[in-house]
Design goal:
transmembrane helix; globular; two-stranded antiparallel ribbon; transmembrane; cell membrane; 701 residues; BCCT_transptr; 4 strands; mainly alpha; two-stranded antiparallel sheet
Length: 701
């Protein structure tokens, strides 16, 4: 890539406008066609089966889940293990950007944005209803009796299994890969570039890369449409619970259109304005809602339950991590675990790209631990406040679940508000706040989704035209509305089907992405320096102790220490020959260091030649690289050890240069530019050319 000085002679200080983002038709057109075709199929399927649509969609969901659900279990668990390895190993020291970069957003804004985009709607939707469902329909593997207090306690851990580390491990893998390949390696912010270390640049820029991005767009749109559909169902239930509107298809369409319009406005205002402000406001409102329920509800019980629920979650992880439902007499795994994991797999391109976009400058350890632990902790607190309160209320009063054990997922949250010891007016206020929170989560999800999908359709360029972002925001809203209309009473089942089907091709991409990242991280660790400090003298306490052992009086101790200091500062007779051959003058000066470490010959250890008034230890800081034995060579004549660079550095992406702002701002781009400057100026040619350019400018003036 040509440097800016070469590209713009005579205007070295003028800013260069980045090239305009171009719509990738091989990605955009097929993605839109597939989405429209899938929506058409869902609409036809619902109309074809009419009143039997619920059974038909359920059967379709079961076929998909039974045949590929086991694969989802393996992939999701592997993604979590990979995240933990990356965070807890040397890989965690790698910075997602240049080594001198710092995070773009504050910790609070970063967390608020990733959490709001990640699963806000899902937690609000499931915070009360899912634990109640598990309480009255526990999995066989849990071995508890339905409807009991024991089942209620286990239900929180089972809910957390779906919304905790496993869910965020999916997001973290995709986000980590995108942030690493873009901010450190300089690749476009696109799913396809996760696989460059495997396929190479030529294939990634061909139809193979187009297919990967199309799959990511389609999976993202249907994954987000699932979430938006769930959010609209709950908003409608809240309005109906207050007696303000009757549930109807018309109301659903109006809600989808209205909230899509809000999301469109947020899209136009951009990431640093609309989305960040909405995310922060939404987190504040959600916090207010949780604190009010904590204070007016069974506060002491909830505080005790928080610790207990944490323990339940830790016990549930090994219990359910590899359960696929094979041989089980119930459909719990299919109804809950597989649906949730497929949903998160479908969401991962959207959430992963979004959290990558807002995580520049963080280390891999910060990124992974932040993306795993912080949302999981908040989810635990949320399920404790709402889920445990619901379980206790049901055990005490029995008003949240029907006589047949059925849980109305849409109204469970609002029913819980009615069971709290507060007035009707406060119940109404809490219900309104909940509706606003769901709406804002809806808006931030639609906003984030349109931003991410538009980046994918513009070859990974992060700055895209607002017109296409608005198009995607509208298409996501329309998708959610049509899926709801197609399903009728089975709307939630239709949403489950869309997630299960959309996640299948994406799961293959994620497995290949982990293999590619493993190759790149091994390279990073192999070339990552360890910094060590070498001293030519003992510590002050060791010197004093040695002087005292060899002296009888304080005067002799003082004399001994002064001699050591004079010798160390080069005042004595010792002189090294400069080639690492020790003290050729017979003294104890600098030659002592060279005699002890011959390979450090010629290094400047910066010792002062002035008389010492205080003990300043002689030290040198070195960057040490670990080298495998197979990469070393030995000269048969001299015995000198050499290094085979090809045996150490096997970078599958080396030598690729991109004429994009992402590459220029990345760590690899900065290194490439620095190497160019060295090649131009160190040999003296660059300075002559710079002088000529300065002379030309002076003449023109």
């Amino acid at each position: 890539m040509a440097s800016q000085e070469e590209a713009r002679p005579g205007a070295a200080n003028a800013p260069q406008a980045p090239p305009k983002a171009r719509l990738s038709k091989p990605v955009f057109v097929p993605a839109v066609i597939v989405i429209v075709a899938a929506l058409g199929f869902a609409t036809w399927y619902g109309a074809r089966y009419g009143d039997g649509a619920a059974d038909a969609f359920t059967e379709l969901r079961n076929v998909i889940g039974t045949n590929i659900g086991w694969w989802y279990i393996i992939v999701v668990t592997a993604m979590l293990v990979f995240c933990l390895w990356a965070a807890l190993s040397k890989v965690g020291n790698i910075r997602l950007g240049r080594d001198d970069e710092r995070p773009e957003f504050s910790l609070y804004s970063w967390f608020a944005m990733l959490f709001s985009a990640g699963m806000g709607i899902g937690l609000v939707f499931s915070g009360v209803s899912e634990p109640l469902n598990h309480m009255f329909g526990p999995p066989e593997v849990a071995g508890v009796e339905a409807g009991t207090g024991e089942a209620g306690r286990a239900a929180i851990g089972q809910s957390m299994f779906h919304w905790g580390l496993h869910a965020w491990g999916i997001y973290a893998i995709v986000g980590l890969g995108l942030a690493y390949m873009t901010f450190r390696r300089g690749r476009p912010l696109s799913i396809r570039w996760l696989l460059e270390p495997i396929f190479g640049r030529r294939l990634i820029e061909s139809w193979v890369g187009h297919v990967i991005d199309v799959v990511a767009i389609v999976g993202t749109v249907f994954g987000v449409a699932t979430s938006l559909g769930m959010g609209v169902l709950q908003i409608q239930a809240g309005l109906s619970y207050q007696g303000w509107f009757e549930p109807s298809d018309t109301l659903l369409v109006i809600l989808v259109l209205g909230i899509t319009a809000l999301g469109t406005i947020s899209v136009v205002t951009g990431l640093h304005k609309g989305l960040r402000w909405l995310s922060n406001a939404n987190m504040a409102l959600a916090t207010v809602l949780a604190v009010v329920v904590l204070l007016v509800g069974p506060t002491v019980f909830l505080l005790r339950s928080l610790v207990q629920n944490f323990g339940e979650y830790l016990q549930t992880i090994p219990q359910l991590a590899f359960v696929t439902g094979a041989g089980a007499g119930d459909t719990w795994t299919l109804d809950w675990t597989l649906f949730n994991q497929a949903w998160f797999l479908a969401w991962a391109p959207f959430v992963g790209m979004f959290i990558a976009r807002i995580s520049r400058g963080r280390t891999i350890r910060e990124f992974v631990l932040g993306a795993l632990l912080a949302p999981t902790l908040v989810s635990l607190i949320w399920f404790t406040i709402f889920g445990s309160t619901g379980v206790l209320s049901q055990l005490t009063d029995g008003n949240l679940v029907g006589s047949d054990g059925a849980v109305d997922q849409d109204t469970a949250l609002f029913l819980l508000f009615g069971e709290l010891p507060i007035s009707e007016g406060i119940v109404t206020v809490l219900s309104v706040i909940a509706i606003v929170v769901i709406t804002l989560f809806f808006v931030t999800s639609a906003d984030s989704c349109s931003l991410v999908v538009d980046v994918l359709s513009h070859n990974g360029r992060s700055e895209t035209p607002w017109v296409t972002r608005v198009f995607w925001a509208v298409l996501v809203g329309v998708s959610g509305a049509l899926l709801l209309m197609a399903g009728g009473e089975a709307a939630l089942t239709v949403l489950q089907v869309s997630s299960l089907a959309g996640a299948a091709p994406l799961s293959l991409v994620y497995v290949l992405a982990m293999i590619a990242l493993w190759r790149m991280f091994r390279l990073e660790v192999a070339t990552m320096p360890r910094y060590v400090r070498i001293r030519s003298q003992a510590t002050p306490s060791a010197l004093v102790s040695a002087a005292r052992e060899n002296s009888d009086t304080d005067r002799e101790v003082e004399r001994s220490l002064r001699e050591v200091l004079r010798s160390r500062n080069g005042i004595g007779d010792g002189i090294g020959d400069g080639n690492g051959n020790g003290d050729v003058g017979g003294g104890n000066g600098r030659g002592a260091l060279k005699r002890a470490s011959a390979t450090l010959a010629g290094l400047d250890v910066s010792a002062s030649a002035a008389p010492a008034r205080a003990l300043q230890l002689d030290s040198t800081v070195l960057a040490v690289h670990d080298v495998p034995a197979h990469a070393t060579t030995v000269d048969p004549e001299t015995g000198a050890i050499g290094l085979d660079d090809d045996g150490v550095h096997a970078d599958p992406t080396a030598g690729e240069v991109f004429d994009t702002p992402e590459f220029t701002d990345s760590a690899v781009g900065a290194e490439h530019h620095s190497q160019e400057l060295l090649e131009r100026y160190v040999d003296g040619q660059g300075s002559d050319r710079a002088d000529d350019q300065d002379g030309d400018r002076a003449t023109s003036h």
